[in-house]
Design goal:
Shape: globular
Number of strands: 19
Distance between the termini: 26 Å
Helix content: 25-40%
Bound molecules: flavin-adenine dinucleotide
Strand content: 15-25%
Largest sheet: 7 strands, antiparallel
Amino acid sequence: MGRTVVVLGGGISGLAASYHLSRAPCPPKVVLVESSERLGGWIRSVRGPNGAIFELGPRGIRPAGALGARTLLLSRFLSLAWIQKCCLSGETTQLPRTGSSTWAVPCMPYPLASGRTPQPDSALIRQALAERWSQWSLRGGLEMLPQALETHLTSRGVSVLRGQPVCGLSLQAEGRWKVSLRDSSLEADHVISAIPASVLSELLPAEAAPLARALSAITAVSVAVVNLQYQGAHLPVQGFGHLVPSSEDPGVLGIVYDSVAFPEQDGSPPGLRVTVMLGGSWLQTLEASGCVLSQELFQQRAQEAAATQLGLKEMPSHCLVHLHKNCIPQYTLGHWQKLESARQFLTAHRLPLTLAGASYEGVAVNDCIESGRQAAVSVLGTEPNS
Ligand SMILES: Cc1cc2nc3c(=O)[nH]c(=O)nc-3n(C[C@H](O)[C@H](O)[C@H](O)COP(=O)(O)OP(=O)(O)OC[C@H]3O[C@@H](n4cnc5c(N)ncnc54)[C@H](O)[C@@H]3O)c2cc1C
């Protein structure tokens, strides 16, 4: 009988791991287990009343380097329709209505050939290089990527279980895993974990306590994402967006000018889209105080920021507010030691467990897809077809 690999978590990392496993010449049986009813994790795109696309998580993927090129080729393989983005200008612009240190960041082109991993080559990569793409998205929003991956996985015979939170992992006598779900369980020869490190730490058996300790120390911070759309409004500057130093505002992390990067997603009639990211010490203090974090509070804070920093004083025609709890892993001082001690434990105890996902070696979508690919490589012992 062939091997069974259970992949925990249906975010982009778990989907990428399952994709690469399923494309091996002799693929194992793959079961992908996701706790929520939808796949994609933080990648989520919502359509507004005028057809505009609002990204609640990532909004653009960089084509830079070997990892960027691989993601681009993956999206082409899945027949997705991209929107490409070219460079605007190479200079930052000081914002007219803010204090001294807030600058709009231009849509800079990234050097496509950077990095040490061999760069995949194709006509598409050469086109991206020639046209100096800085980032790209998909016509219907980035969530089309996980959706297309799910369709592909199902066609390759991968079992996708949604609405099934993994409640525990235990080791059987023969060295196989028992993966406990709410009302049932799965047996696995190998587990790829693509859920947050702190969540995995709670699921591990007592024998893996040192590993659980290392993983529980990898924390994450929350971000409130407020998508705003304004009819008939214009930005005072062009660019990708701007970051706000905490000395100027402890709560506003920055504002992304979504319409500048991807005007194709402005809907009809088109309206100016911006996203205000709230977080920092302001949000941490609020979370620690235990007070109710209302949608109105975040909306008001975001509208104030858009008004004072970009002159958008009118009422938005559309507004979405989402508090993403523990969404951005923090690679704090000593992160690499935590990874090293986790790796050493896995090797020393020959645990059939591989770690993937944003908790470890990069939070960008490209990094997460690569972590899934690497996990598949280590399980298969060979490079899968890309
Ligand atoms: C607001 C925001 C903006 C971002 N912007 C960008 C951007 O513009 N460009 C970019 O490249 N990156 C961006 N990122 C980063 C990137 O989107 C994330 O790092 C990446 O999507 C994480 O993917 P993941 O699969 O590792 O984790 P997740 O997306 O967290 O997926 C993990 C999955 O595991 C599931 N899960 C959890 N516990 C269990 C359990 N017990 N059992 C089963 N399933 C479980 C979860 O439901 C989830 O679906 C952004 C992130 C955020 C939050």
